[in-house]
Amino acid sequence: MITAIKTQYRTMNEIHLNKDSGIRMENSSQNTLTANTVNKNTNYGIMIVGSNNTIQQNTIRNNSKHGIFLFADDHNTIYNNPIQGNTKTGIHMSNSTNDTICTNEIANNEEYGIYLDHFTLNNLIYNNYFHDNNHNSVDKRLNRNRWNITKTKK
């Protein structure tokens, strides 16, 4: 398991078969995770409780709970990741604000492709390819998140 606290760049790691989460970033900001394979972990593939983190070009699959779990977080960017075959949800957002989720392939997750709870708001979700999930997406906070907008500048 990788635990990040400060500004870190984690690139090209094979993270699998942990008895907890593969990557856990709690109270952690300004991290960048690129080109990691996060596979078959007991809890979450990647768990984020923090702000201004970037998760890009990682392969996240076959984790026992959620592929990515965002909790009480803000201003994170999740893009260009295949997120597949997780037991619960590809991306689960709980009390998450001002995150950007774009250009991910979110597929074959047993419950949801992406799940946003009642306390999740002001997030931007666009240009993701959802397929073969039991439910592709659920947003419990209707009209408080923006979906499938015209592509914007970063």
The major sheet is characterized as: 7 strands, parallel
**Range of strand content:** over 45%
Structure class: mainly beta
Span from first to last CA?
30 Å
> What is the H-and-E element order?
EEEEEEEEEEEEEEEEEEEE
Uncertain runs = none
Radius of gyration: 14 Å
The chain-level mean pLDDT equals 90
Q: What kind of oligomer do you see?
A: single chain
According to CATH, the homologous superfamily is Single-stranded right-handed beta-helix, Pectin lyase-like
**What would CATH call the class?**
Mainly Beta
- What characteristic shape results from the CA principal axes? globular
Helix content: under 10%
The number of domains: 1
Describe it for me?
By secondary structure, the protein is an all-beta fold. Helix content is 0%, strand content 48%. The chain has strands at residues 2-4, 9-11, 14-16, 23-29, 32-34, 37-39, 46-51, 54-56, 59-61, 68-71, 77-79, 82-84, 89-94, 100-102, 105-107, 112-116, 124-126, 129-131, 135-139, 146-147. The strands form 3 sheets. A 7-stranded parallel beta sheet has the order 1-4-7-10-13-16-19, with no helix packed on it. A 7-stranded parallel beta sheet has the order 2-5-8-11-14-17-20, with no helix packed on it. It is globular and about 40 Å long.
Question: How would you summarize this macromolecular structure in one to three sentences?
Answer:
With 154 residues, the protein is mainly beta. It has no helices and 20 strands.
